[in-house]
Each structure stands twice: as structure tokens, then as C-alpha cells.
Write a structure and sequence with these properties.
It contains 2 helices and 19 strands. By secondary structure, the protein is mostly beta strands. Strands 3, 5, 6, 8, 13, 14, 15, 16, 17 and 19 form a 10-stranded mixed beta sheet that branches. Strands 4-7-18-9-10-11-12 form a 7-stranded antiparallel beta sheet, with no helix packed on it. A two-stranded antiparallel ribbon has the order 1-2. It folds into 2 domains: about 40 residues, no CATH class; about 210 residues, Jelly Rolls.
């Protein structure tokens, strides 16, 4: 009676050894979830990750930037646009980066605004027939009330292209929501009024993405060949209306080859 028991014990030990070996091999090929800095093998979000980015503002001067000196200046390592009751704006004005006309790129920056409306232009053009420092094109919208902040707007073009919380597809004469990302009010709660916020714009081909404080705000697939832009200028907006002040800092660009 002892012999079968011994054989069974040997077989059980062999099975355990094989199982342990297979498990160890699997763990080597598939690291466990929750490894520091990674979830399921994907690196966790790091807002200040600027690997591959280059600064396009030196924090001291407006070298490389072109705007109306009556409204734009450098202060506390930020580009500042400010209007007053004594010096109001008569038309939306922009400060333009003269370093190129990027096509596919990522832009990261931080902004702070104390009134009215602003925005970040990209893949844009100038309209000298309307005025110096006037731009047309895609805009990541910013406003003090955060009614529109995060949306995709086309300045002097097709207007609203994707409201906050929407993924849209644009075709000739047609704009359509193809996915709801999250409610506009939920996303609004992630914006810090009167404080610094990080804006991250990604342009890849005809896919345009706006991210604010690490959260997806709006996304558009622009399938309108007659209206879309594949490259263009980057700039910051000051909007007509009551006196306002807007600040931009830590402006970094990664151009895709």
C-alpha cells in the first residue's frame, strides 16, 4: 500500500515543479500589473514630461515672436498680453511665433487668464488685409468663465468644430459628433479658474486633439479637404472686449519628422 502513495507524491511534486516553471516564465514575459510608473505595461501620465520637446520661448525676451508691442510683453518668465480701459483692443490681435509653420506636432504650455477670452492658434495663416497680427485657423479656445475652454474653434473660418466633451468628424458642409467623451460640465470642473492650466495640443494629419490638465477635452477628424489646414503658424490671441490679461509660460514644441 505504501508504493502507490510514494508514486502519487512523486507525480504531485513533478506537477508542482512544472507549474512553477511555467508561471515564472509567464511573469518574465508579462510583468505584473502595478509596477511603479506603469499600469498594464503602459507608462502613467506625467504632466511635466517634455521628452523630445524644445522650448520656443526663452522666458526673457520676445525673440522669435511677433506681436503688437502695445499689448504684448514678457513678465515673470511669461508672455503676457494685456489690454486696459485706456488702451482697448479694436480687433482680435495675436502674437505669432516666427520659427516655422509646423504640420504634425505636439505643443505644451501653461496659461492663466483673468478676463474675457483668448486662445492658442495653430496651423493658421495671417490676414494682413484685415490688419497686422490678425490670424485665421484652428484655435484651442480659452476663456475666463470656462464656457468654451478646451474646445476646437476655427477663427474667421468654420466656427465651432468640436465643443468640449465631443469628438467630431468634419466633411464638406457637415459637422457630426461621432463620440461623446465626457460631459462638458465634468470637464469644466477640471479647469483651474484664474490659475495656471496646462494645455497640450496634438496635430497628426487630419486628427486634432486638445488635452487640458491631462484630460481629453475635444478631438476632431477634419475630412474637409477644401477647408482643412495641414500646416501653419502658431500664435496666442487677445480678444476684443473688457480689459483682460492672459499669460503663457513653459511653451514647448515637438515637431514630428
Amino acid at each position: 500500500m505504501k508504493k502507490p502513495v510514494v508514486i502519487a507524491a512523486v507525480l504531485l511534486a513533478a506537477m508542482l515543479l512544472i507549474f512553477t516553471s511555467i508561471t515564472q516564465q509567464g511573469e518574465a514575459q508579462n510583468p505584473p500589473r502595478g509596477v511603479a510608473g506603469r499600469v498594464n505595461g503602459i507608462d502613467q501620465l506625467v504632466l511635466n514630461d517634455h521628452a523630445g520637446f524644445e522650448s520656443i520661448f526663452d522666458g526673457k525676451t520676445l525673440n522669435g515672436w511677433d506681436g503688437d508691442p502695445a499689448f504684448w510683453r514678457v513678465e515673470n518668465e511669461a508672455i503676457v498680453g494685456e489690454s486696459t480701459s485706456e488702451k482697448p483692443l479694436k480687433v482680435n490681435t495675436f502674437i505669432i511665433w516666427r520659427g516655422g509653420k509646423p504640420a504634425d506636432f505636439e505643443l505644451k504650455l501653461e496659461y492663466r487668464i483673468n478676463s474675457t477670452n483668448s486662445g492658442v492658434q495653430y496651423r493658421s495663416v495671417e490676414l494682413p488685409e484685415i490688419g497686422k497680427w490678425v490670424m485665421k485657423g484652428y484655435q484651442a479656445d480659452i476663456d475666463f468663465q470656462n464656457t468654451y475652454t478646451g474646445q476646437l474653434y476655427e477663427e474667421r473660418g468654420r466656427g465651432f468644430l468640436a465643443m468640449r466633451g465631443q469628438m467630431t468628424q468634419l466633411q464638406t458642409g457637415k459637422k457630426q459628433i461621432i463620440a461623446n467623451l465626457r460631459s462638458s460640465d465634468d470637464l469644466k470642473s477640471l479647469i483651474k479658474p484664474g490659475d495656471w492650466n496646462q494645455l497640450h495640443i496634438i496635430a497628426r494629419g487630419n486628427l486634432l486633439t486638445h488635452i487640458l490638465n491631462g484630460h481629453l477635452m475635444a478631438q476632431t477628424i477634419d475630412d474637409d479637404p477644401s477647408a482643412r489646414a495641414i500646416n501653419g503658424l502658431i500664435g496666442f490671441q487677445m480678444h476684443v472686449g473688457p480689459p483682460m490679461k492672459v499669460e503663457f509660460q513653459n511653451i514647448k514644441l515637438k515637431i514630428m519628422k
